[in-house]
Automatic annotation (TrEMBL):
Monomer. It comes from Pontibacterium sinense. SUPFAM superfamilies: S-adenosyl-L-methionine-dependent methyltransferases (SSF53335). It is found in: Cytoplasm. Residues 86-163 form the Ribosomal RNA large subunit methyltransferase M THUMP-like domain. This is Ribosomal RNA large subunit methyltransferase M. S-adenosyl-L-methionine binds at S189, A222, P223, G224, G225, D241, D261, D277.
């Protein structure tokens, strides 16, 4: 077996090329070179490094939070082809060469075929975890605390076995936070904003960055899925959209509906948070968000960049570069984070704030 020569990179099915372009760039930044293998709509990419061990260099040195299209990663070796009669025994001997781990996650591609493996993954995971605990390979010891054993299951007999640092990988299985759709919310896109908060704002900072009783502007708000999340945080919201807002939301008394153009709207005073879900050219929204921060209209912005059909990675990088250039020119310290969320479709979501 080649030791930690590969990375399995999970992504939204259909975005394999973007995930491949991204990992190739980011690995090169830490001196790791390799090649990608992918099939469109498989929901993952395989990156094979030129040198054994280099997959661990990538997961240790590249900041996972900086990845946009990669939802989860695993540093692993070759694909394990297992005999259905003795999977645990075979994997047990492979794992002898692995470091001690604190937990075991069994993941699969986020595709129809992948989801059919869910029950197998759960059962196999609990049997393997028991076996590993007995062998002392799963433990709470200090040395094991930051290493998670991750299996990526392609079928009952084909499994990538690898590891990921707990503090530098997705904090949810398959990189998908399990969020419950709130019945009262007027649109499904409500979960985009909630998911963005989970990715971008540490739980200890929610009260500071999305303060109860705070103020927000929602650009392109109708019918009000994102506004609903803000109101649910007891925030006071100006919802900017020419379209109609949900009646129940308006009755909350916390929303003012401004029937104006999102790209012309100026708030009376600085708000805690601006959010924007307008379907527009992404470069225009990127410029709008940086204007809001630099003009002092808001303390933080969360916005969606709707991607074109082609050159989606290049388009995203172009938008992020525009924001970085503007912030740098203005001489301000800022944080810009971008992720293609589980609830995003042909789009990515960004968070921009001054530090
Ligand atoms: C994807 S929808 C927003 C959905 C909303 N975030 C929700 O959760 O219910 C985009 C909205 O942007 C609005 N819109 C498009 N261009 C706009 C503009 N220039 N100014 C204001 N609103 C705009 C549309 O009317 C539409 O309601």
């Amino acid at each position: 077996m080649s030791e930690f020569c590969r990375l399995v990179l999970q992504c939204r099915p259909g975005f394999e090329k973007e995930a491949a372009a991204e990992i190739t760039d980011r690995a090169a930044e830490v001196g790791v070179y390799g090649y990608c293998q992918l099939k469109p709509h498989d929901g993952y990419v395989l990156f094979t490094c030129q040198q054994d061990g280099d997959a661990r260099v990538v997961v240790d040195k590249v900041d996972f939070r900086s990845l946009i299209f990669v939802r989860q990663w695993t540093a692993c070796g070759d694909l394990q082809v297992l005999d259905a009669n003795d999977r645990i025994g075979q994997l047990g001997s492979v794992l002898d060469g692995y470091p001690e781990c604190v937990e075991l996650w069994v993941e699969q591609p986020d595709t129809t075929e992948g989801r059919e493996l869910g029950t197998f993954c759960r059962k196999f995971g609990s049997a393997l975890a028991q076996h590993m605990r007995k062998k002392g390979k799963l433990s709470k010891r200090k040395e094991a605390r930051n290493t998670r054993l991750q299996l990526f299951v392609l079928s009952g007999s084909e499994i990538y076995v690898g590891i990921a640092p707990v503090n530098n990988s997705a904090p949810w299985l398959m990189g998908i936070p399990r969020l419950k759709f709130p019945k009262q919310a007027p649109s499904r896109s409500t979960l985009k904003l909630e998911e963005a908060w989970h990715w971008f704002i540490p739980s200890t900072k929610w009260d500071e960055r999305i303060p109860l009783g705070g103020s927000a502007v929602d650009l392109g708000a109708a019918p009000g899925g994102w506004t609903w999340q803000l109101v649910n945080r007891s925030m006071f919201v100006t919802a900017v959209d020419n379209g109609p807002m949900n009646d129940d939301l308006m009755e909350s008394g916390q929303v003012i509906h401004a029937e104006e153009d999102a790209y012309q709207f100026v708030p009376d005073k600085t708000v805690d948070l601006m959010v924007c879900d307008v379907v527009e050219k992404p470069i225009r929204t990127a410029a709008l968000a940086s204007d809001w921060l630099l003009n002092g209209y808001c303390r933080e912005a969360i916005f969606n960049l709707k991607l074109p059909m082609k050159q989606r990675y290049q388009e995203t990088v172009g938008c992020l570069n525009l924001i970085s250039d503007r912030m740098t020119e203005a001489g301000v310290a800022y944080e810009l984070r971008t992720k293609q969320l589980y609830h995003d479709r042909e789009e990515v979501t960004c968070s921009l704030r001054l530090l």
